[in-house]
Amino acid sequence: MGLKKYYLKNKIEVGTDEAGRGCLAGPVVAAAVILPNNFKHPLLNDSKQLTEKQRNLVRPFIEENALAFKVSYVFEDTIDKINILQASILAMHKAIEKLQITPEHIIVDGNKFNAYKNIPHTTIVKGDAKFMSIAAASILAKTYRDEFMQKLDEEFPQYFWKKNKGYPTKQHRNAIREFGITNYHRKSFKLLPQQLKLEL
């Protein structure tokens, strides 16, 4: 079962997806990708199905061969203000807005999206495993976010972000217990199971 090229034929269609929704720290990152009709790559799939090495192999191929792509970041302070779902949608809007080509249709991974300008959109559950442009967006969002967290790791090695990328691993939670939180942590998230004891 291969990935489909597009949801609507003969339309300039953009696929969009985000990475980092479930993290305790760092931005939520979204990508928007418009692919040419003849696009194919043997590894292209939902980023969660690929290893880090495979994602890093596919990413430059997507960047070189996409008709247009953009990546955008929404940071902790905004996530804390508007909530993670709205921040994820905002990141997708920002990525679409920066594209050099205006799409005629938007396909979105998941089941929630806010209308963007007057461009029709379709939400697709598990879209990153069904459509090429969403899969490509999921790979870009994930690799850009991972890179960002690896850079932050140099500043805050005690949280092991190089390894956990800000996700709620046991190691990450233990570090929060021991060292408290950084500016990069999302204060609206339940950072520890017993949040009440945490001195914020």
UniProtKB/TrEMBL annotation:
Name of the protein described by the UniProt record? Ribonuclease HII
Kindly list the cofactors needed: Mn(2+); Mg(2+)
Q: Write the Enzyme Commission number(s) for this entry.
A: 3.1.26.4
Q: How is the cofactor bound?
A: Manganese or magnesium. Binds 1 divalent metal ion per monomer in the absence of substrate. May bind a second metal ion after substrate binding.
Q: Which CDD domains would you find in this protein's record? A: RNase_HII_bacteria_HII_like (cd07182)
Using the UniProt record, name the top-level EC class of this enzyme in a single word: hydrolase
Keyword DNA repair in record: no
Q: Which family does it belong to?
A: Belongs to the RNase HII family.
The GO cellular component terms are:
cytoplasm; ribonuclease H2 complex
MF (Gene Ontology): manganese ion binding; RNA binding; RNA-DNA hybrid ribonuclease activity
Instruction: Provide the reaction this enzyme catalyses.
Output: Endonucleolytic cleavage to 5'-phosphomonoester
* Coiled-coil residues: none
